[in-house]
Design brief:
The protein is α+β, with helices and mostly antiparallel strands and about 190 residues long. It has a domain of about 120 residues. The chain has four helices and 13 strands. The strands form three sheets. It has a five-stranded mixed sheet with strand order 3-13-5-4-12. A four-stranded antiparallel sheet has the order 1-9-10-11, with no helix packed on it. It has a four-stranded mixed sheet with strand order 2-6-7-8, with no helix packed on it. It is elongated, with a radius of gyration of 31 Å. It starts with a helix and ends with a helix. About 15% of the residues have low confidence.
C-alpha cells in the first residue's frame, strides 16, 4: 500500500466514523419570546413587588410642621384622634402605605401616585392592621392585606374603609388644631423632634 492509498483509506475511515452523509447544519432553535403583558394602563406596566410595611412613622405636631398652607393632605379622624398625611410625602414608593397602630385599633392610609387614588382601611376591634404595597397590576396599585393581595380599589378587601378628608394643610389644621402630621423624608431634613 503506497502513501496515496493510505490517505484514501484514512479518508474513508473518517467518513465512516463521521457519517457518510453530507453534514447537516445544526438549526439552533430561536429563543422563545416571553409575551409582554398588555399595556392597559396608559404606559404603566405591571410591576409585582412587596415593599416593607411602614408602621408608626415619626410624626410632627401641628406647631412643628413647616409645610405650606396650600399643601394637600389626607386627614383622618380615627378614634377621635386627628392625623394628617402630606400627600407629596405619600408619592414616595416607600410611603404609598402608612400603617398607624397608636391605639387599640389601627388604620392604614394607601395612596397610588399613578392613579391619584386614596383609600384608608381600618382594623377590626382589637386587631392591629398591617397593609403593604404589592406592586402595580391592571392599572391599579396592589396592596397586601391579611395575607391576600388586592387592587387598591377592590371591594373584596376583608377590612372596613375609614372616612378621610382630602384637603389643604391650612384647612385641616384650622379644623383640628391638635392634629399631628406625617411628612416622610421632609421630617428627617428638619432635624426636629416631637
Amino acid at each position: 500500500m503506497n502513501f496515496d492509498d493510505k490517505w484514501k483509506v484514512l479518508a474513508i475511515v473518517v467518513l465512516i466514523v463521521a457519517g457518510c452523509d453530507e453534514p447537516q447544519q445544526q438549526q439552533t432553535p430561536s429563543p422563545a419570546k416571553t409575551p409582554m403583558p398588555p399595556d392597559i394602563s396608559g404606559g404603566m406596566m405591571s410591576t409585582p413587588f412587596l415593599v416593607p410595611p411602614l408602621v408608626n412613622p415619626e410624626i410632627l405636631t401641628a406647631t412643628e410642621a413647616e409645610i405650606a398652607p396650600e399643601e394637600q393632605v389626607i386627614g383622618v379622624l380615627y378614634e377621635g384622634v386627628p392625623r394628617a398625611f402630606q400627600l407629596s410625602a405619600l408619592k414616595d414608593m416607600r410611603y404609598h402605605v402608612v400603617n398607624e397602630h397608636r391605639g387599640p385599633q389601627g388604620f392604614a392610609v394607601t395612596y397610588c401616585d399613578r392613579t391619584d387614588c386614596v383609600r384608608v382601611l381600618g382594623s377590626g376591634k382589637g386587631e392591629q392592621l398591617l397593609v403593604q404595597t404589592a406592586g402595580f397590576h391592571n392599572g391599579e396599585m396592589q396592596i397586601r392585606v391579611k395575607s391576600g393581595q388586592y387592587s387598591q380599589t377592590s371591594k373584596d378587601i376583608p377590612v372596613p374603609d375609614v372616612e378621610f378628608t382630602r384637603t389643604t394643610w391650612a384647612q385641616w389644621k384650622e379644623a383640628h388644631p391638635q392634629t399631628t402630621l406625617f411628612v416622610g423624608e421632609i421630617r428627617k431634613k428638619s432635624g426636629k423632634t416631637p
